[in-house]
């Protein structure tokens, strides 16, 4: 209960940890104040004293210990006064509500005293009702303030009691401190005043406070000003730190984008050079094979004629030889006069020429520079102009750019240009262009313009057609999700006899995934952080292929069977599937009580009891071969999304088999569509293993662009799944799992 007239600061001091020692965490006992104004128990400070010094536990300031020990530190009478109030309450509580009168034993009453009902704030004594009435009637105590004990315990009179408190002299118990010795700056009681401070000028405490308080208030005002400046400086430091982090994040993004651009260009050059190498080798091999066929034919004719002539001359009779002489001679002369092919044709051996900058260890395409921090307004102006595609570059003193700066400039200009702007050829046209068509000129050491043109020609060339740009419905709207790398971990466990071959993934409980390892015949559980959680037992001899988690059950396909087991591995039912399909994709319905499986071009849906709930053919075409199925959880009908290997397309259909959307465009790069996953907003993530990509499509199956590429660490991605609608889990062919958080740009 809070008293109406009490000071809030006094209540806070009494109820907070202000009266607790920061060393022992108990209530202060014999509080001593250090020069840094931190207060601790005398015994606690004695334990910290070492070598004539001690270090303040809070501010870490080193304090010299007086020669007589820590007892010589100043006693905190302010804390002692507050402790007296707290102790008075605590002593009353210990008496279980029945404290004894302090005056009854002095007047010859019972040794324990009667029950106290009042308290004298001046004497700090608990009084019974009779003693309280008499306390007000004596000449010495009639001015004392006597209050009811219940109100005192409740804190109604804390402020009044505080005003009437008198600090006790530590040298003379029972004597209050009344004077201040000015030369010694020491508090004195009446006994201390007599000796040895008798000849020293002393002031009463009230007068001394009036004389010295203005000086302290002036010092306090100066410290308050310093505190305001410190707070302002601290806020500026925080703003500077925030600006540093923001700029570092911006530069980090620029570094990532620039590095991706360079890697993309290098990979494009690699594919182009490898394509030229393959074309050259194929052409040379074809010409060599044609020459070999001609040589083998001529060699066979000459060998057969020589063999025949040698047999006639060795085994024939005179008449036989003479009768065949003309024909043999004519044939041999004909063979001798045949225009034989010359020696082996000169073979053009390929040789790789690297740009000198790639071999120069001092060539830095990415380089950091540091400058002093500007004001917030100037930094905002600079931030608006310092984009990734800036064309401004630091120059040398004579105004010319260095070779390294020129290369960075070329990269940035190239990234800023589009094929439509500079009239560049399409990827197919550029891929078909030979070095002779491009001029065949190497980069001259002093030719800057030629070098720039050579770089641009190389960077524009790609080996595969890029994914189309986002459609008009999403371009510039900021709704296309972006990947944020979360973690990566291997799935091979110590007990595995073979390298993992992950053929199925599915979410399994909160922030967990279930991994189907067909090679080791196991269903492994992992957290999203990569912690191994154990395995779900599978029937002996089963090699799980595709897997889906239902409500308190796990469904998986193995061979030509569909299994439903409990998390403990108990088989609940199994169903035979078609033998004409190598693998059967399994997916859980959004309700969690049904499982769908692809079987020879159609989809079968089973309930938890193993009964066939429905069966349909997507679009009514019997030649569908769906390999992977995921349901659009945002659709109340539970739409199906699958990869069609027969038509090389991705198909989206409703629960009745009606096709909602289908994509078979150039964004697939001619690859067979792989695993599919769907996030909480309905975006479809399609795996293209051959080109190391995961592309993203809208809920109706329209391609939006690339989501993950080789630059994100994808190397032959195999299976994906979506966890909690916002974590895309990707398994690679080597058994490694990458986890990416799907974040919309508008989040």
From TrEMBL:
Family listed = Belongs to the TRIM/RBCC family.
What is the reaction catalyzed?
S-ubiquitinyl-[E2 ubiquitin-conjugating enzyme]-L-cysteine + [acceptor protein]-L-lysine = [E2 ubiquitin-conjugating enzyme]-L-cysteine + N(6)-ubiquitinyl-[acceptor protein]-L-lysine
Q: What are this entry's molecular-function GO terms?
A: ubiquitin protein ligase activity; zinc ion binding
- Name this protein carries in UniProt: E3 ubiquitin-protein ligase TRIM56
PANTHER family hit by this protein: BONUS, ISOFORM C-RELATED (PTHR25462), E3 UBIQUITIN-PROTEIN LIGASE TRIM56 (PTHR25462:SF299)
Q: Which organism is it from?
A: Vicugna pacos (Alpaca)
Q: Which Gene3D superfamilies match?
A: Classic Zinc Finger, TolB, C-terminal domain, Zinc/RING finger domain, C3HC4 (zinc finger)
> What ranges does the record list as Basic residues composition bias?
448-461
Which parts of the chain are coiled coil?
A: 227-305
Q: Where is this region: Disordered?
A: 373-477
Query: What GO cellular component is one of the record's annotations?
Result: cytoplasm
Chain ranges of the B box-type domain: 164-205
